[in-house]
Protein: Putative stage IV sporulation protein YqfD
Amino acid sequence: MFDRLRTFWQGRVFFIARGEQLPHFLNYVLQEGVALYHTQRSERGMRAQVRLDDFRRLKRAARRTHTRVHIIAKYGWPFVAARWWRRKGLIAGIAVIAVGLTVLSQLVLVISVTGNRTVETSEIIQRAEKLGLRTWTYSKGLDLNKIAKTLQEELPDAAWVGLERNGTEIVIKISEKIRPSIPKEAGNLVASHAGLVKEIMVIQGVPQVHEGELVRAGQVLIAKAPTLGVPTTPIVSKAEPNPAKSTTPDLPASAAKGFVRGRVWYSAEQQMPLVEDKNQESGRVAKGWGIKFGSRVIMVTMQNSPFEQAHREVLSHSIRVWRNWRFPVEVIQVNYKELQNVHIQRSVSEARQLAEETARSEVMKKISPGAQIIEETVKVLPSNPGVERVRVEVETYEDLAVYANP
Structure:
C-alpha cells in the first residue's frame, strides 16, 4: 500500500523505445543511474516505466544511440496537479460552492408546522420568531428544547410541542388538546346499547325511563326540556283556512343533561375444527432488490420467488436529496415470505380453548371504552361432529346515555 502511495506521489511515465541499438540504450540508461520498472520486450520496441524525475535523463542515452522514445501514458499526482492547475477557475468555483453549502447548511432556511388544526400556522411561526427561531439564523446556537417548552406554555390549545431539525429545515410539531365537543342544543340523550337501567340522574331535561327498566339501542332516556319563554305569533297554515286550527312553532329547547348507567350484555360465538389444513408462514424470508424508474421496475437480485408458495411484500425506499426534492430513482425491496401447507390436529380441549380465546377477543372489541366488566360466562354449544362451538357472554356496567345524532 505504501509503495503504491509513493509511486502515485512521485509520478510515473510509461514510454516505448524504438531503435536498432536498444541494448546499448539500456546500458547507457543504467549507467546514468536511472531505474526502469516493468521492462518488456516487444516487436515494436521496448516498453518500460520510469520516474518523472528520471525521464529527462533518458534524452542523453536516446541521442547517443539514435533511439526514439515516445510517451504512452502518465500516472501520478504531478500530472493530476498540473491538469487541475490549468483549470483554476473551475477549482475556485468548486471551492466557492463548497464553502457556500457549508455555510448554508449551518443556517435555518425553512420553518414548517405540522399537526395543527385549530391553531393558525402564522401565529405559531410569529411566536417562534419572537423566541429567536427565524430563518437565516445559526441553527446550532438555538436551544430547541427551551423554545418548544416556551411555545407549549404560550399556546393554550397545544398539549405538546416538539422541534425537529432536518438539515436546514426546522419542523414544529404540534399535538393539540382534545376538548370535549359541546353538543348542539335541542339534543336528546338516547341509549347507546340495549341494557338494564340501574342508575339515572337528570340535570336538565325530562326523564323517559326509570331504574330497573330494559331499554333498546336508540331509545330516548332523557328528553330535552322546552325553555320557558313568550310564545311566538301564531302562523296560519296554508292548508287550513281556519285560524283556530293554526299551529305555533316549537319553543326554543336546550339539550338534555345527565347520565344513565346500567348493565349491558355482549356476546360472540366462534367454532374451531378439530382437523384443519391451512397455509401459514414458515418464517423463511428471501429478499430481492431492484430499482424503480417512474412506473418501471428493474430487479437487480432475485427476480422471482425461490419458494413454491410465498407472500410477496414490496417496500419502497426513496432518496431525499434536498428539502422536499427527492431523487427520481427509488430502491425497491421485495420480501418473499414462504408459505407452507400445515395439517393441524387438535384435541377437544385445545379446540375449545382456541375458540374461546377468539370469541373473547371479538367481545372485547365490542365493549365500550371505560366499561366495567361484571361477569363473564363461557358456554359450549352443540355443533357438528369434528367442530367445537363456544359462546362467550360478558356483562358490563357502563354509561348508556349518548346524544342522538342530529
